[in-house]
Specification:
By secondary structure, the chain is α+β, with helices and mostly antiparallel strands.
Length: about 170
Amino acid sequence: MKREEKDQIIGSLVEDLSKYNCFYITDISSLTVEKTNQLRRLCFNKQVKINVAKNSMIKKALERMDGDYSPLFETLKGSSAIMYSDTGNVPAKLIKEFRAKNDRPILKGAWIDSAIFVGDNNLDVLVALKSKNELVADVIALLQSPAKNVISALQSSGQKLSGILKTLEEKGS
């Protein structure tokens, strides 16, 4: 492969790595063509982009980017595929779902909004991460809860108060 071709591939990797909020480095070696196609189809359905690249190219792309990605360099051994997503937990859920019937992909490392996770043992942690939309929904629910309680209390107090007044009125007559 010529130097120009390598630079073009590295440039493409840098573009993809910069464009998405998170990426996962995985090992999909030993998957058959059929299983690899199933994984790619699942990725497509979940809006996760997947690329297979040489480790040296991935490392050079990470070195060209702003930030410290050096903890991920140790994961760049063997066969590597990169999964890109805008939502941090979607690739983790996808990996877990696919591994219910297969032994791969194995999580080598992940970068999610400047946090780095190394090793397959972090898969459950990544699955449990909440997306930005889920966090916003939780905050809104928490903010609405006290208001709902106050409104409910006012409504029930109003009914009790009118009942008491009605009883007093009837006794007074």
